[in-house]
């Protein structure tokens, strides 16, 4: 095997190790281990409805995974997609409730507003990083709490329907809702939007001057600066694009899956996006497979909890193992060194 195939192989090995450990845990916990494992592996794909559920969950994971992958590619450990995803959903909900537009313009306006707000909010930690070298991890995590608090205030005091039995907004105008694209499921037009964004991000990253500058800045900011790249501008631009994508994801999720805004806690998709980005090795096109895989095992765990005697929390162990092994730089590194040495001897 050539060294260039090492990272895909390493990711596959991590996934297999995590699944094997999950199967061992199931065998120890369940009274019917083989049946339970079969439920976990097969049920997410067993019916049209289950496949639809898998794709529905993958859509927001693709948005946030794509957003975080661009930041990680620029060597920016920013986890602010979580708060932006939530707050942009609030913005899109406000327009879906109060604006009066036709069925074509209404969702476009709501999604555009959420996306622009997401970009502007994301630019703040980007500017702090570019100008004053503030730690983007700290500032983005603090922004998550701020955006959640402000968003919850808007929900409770500006958008809340007093007639609802919970903390939920007024109903969205029907013209604002995204249409279903697969009859018999809740798969909506957001799938098309996110696939277009993934292709656009791939083209941006690998076919444009700005994408090259982003990759160079991520590889070595000091060297990129010496090469004439304005790294501060690159950092701010990356934050703007990532925030735009995360904001679009929150807006699409709200308009595609709900008729009211009722998130009273952070949905978690932003942090999940980091896992998707790690699985995808920060490659935009690979985000599709990574998001579908994460959605697959989560749906499998949920169905397993309902149809067997193993709780769905088991999947947290799988995710933790994947994160630990992917972030362990020394895992299987000896094999990579061996392949590089073999190739060097061959060409030497």
UniProtKB/TrEMBL annotation:
The chain crosses the membrane at residues 12-30, 50-72, 84-101, 107-128, 137-155, 187-206, 234-258, 314-332. This is ABC transporter permease. PANTHER family: ABC TRANSPORTER, PERMEASE PROTEIN (PTHR47089), GUANOSINE ABC TRANSPORTER PERMEASE PROTEIN NUPP (PTHR47089:SF1). GO terms for cellular component: plasma membrane. It is found in: Cell membrane. Coiled coil: none annotated. The keyword Glycosyltransferase does not apply. One of its GO terms (molecular function) is transmembrane transporter activity. Keywords: Cell membrane, Membrane, Transmembrane, Transmembrane helix. It comes from Cohnella thailandensis.
């Amino acid at each position: 095997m050539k060294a260039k195939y090492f990272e895909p192989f390493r990711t596959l090995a991590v996934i297999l190790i995590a699944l094997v450990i999950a199967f061992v845990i199931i065998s120890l916990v369940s009274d019917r281990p083989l049946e339970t494992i079969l439920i976990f592996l097969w049920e997410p794909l067993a019916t049209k409805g289950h496949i639809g559920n898998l794709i529905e969950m993958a859509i927001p994971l693709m948005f946030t995974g794509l957003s975080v992958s661009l930041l990680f590619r620029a060597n920016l450990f920013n986890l602010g997609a979580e708060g932006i995803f939530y707050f942009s959903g609030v913005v899109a909900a406000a327009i879906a409730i109060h604006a009066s537009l036709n069925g074509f313009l209404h969702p476009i306006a709501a999604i555009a507003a959420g996306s622009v707000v997401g970009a502007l909010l994301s630019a703040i930690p980007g500017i702090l990083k570019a100008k004053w070298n503030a730690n983007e991890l700290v500032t983005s995590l603090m922004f998550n709490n701020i955006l959640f608090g402000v968003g919850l205030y808007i929900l409770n005091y500006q958008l809340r329907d007093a007639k609802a039995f919970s903390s939920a907004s007024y109903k969205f105008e029907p013209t604002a809702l995204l249409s279903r694209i697969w009859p018999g499921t809740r798969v909506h037009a957001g799938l098309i939007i996110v696939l277009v964004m993934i292709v656009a991000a791939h083209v941006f990253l690998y076919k444009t001057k700005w994408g090259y500058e982003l990759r160079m800045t991520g590889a070595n900011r000091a060297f990129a600066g010496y090469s004439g790249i304005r790294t501060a501008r690159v950092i701010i631009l990356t934050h703007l694009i990532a925030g735009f994508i995360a904001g679009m994801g929150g807006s699409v999720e709200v308009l595609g899956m709900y008729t009211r805004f009722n998130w009273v806690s952070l949905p978690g998709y932003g942090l999940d996006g980091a896992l998707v980005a790690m699985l995808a090795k920060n490659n935009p096109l690979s985000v599709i497979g990574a998001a579908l895989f994460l959605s697959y095992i989560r749906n499998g765990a949920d169905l397993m909890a309902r149809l067997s005697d193993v709780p769905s929390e088991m999947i947290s162990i799988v995710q933790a193992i994947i994160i630990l092994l992917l972030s362990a730089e020394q895992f299987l590194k000896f094999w990579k060194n061996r392949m590089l040495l073999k190739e060097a001897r061959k060409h030497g």
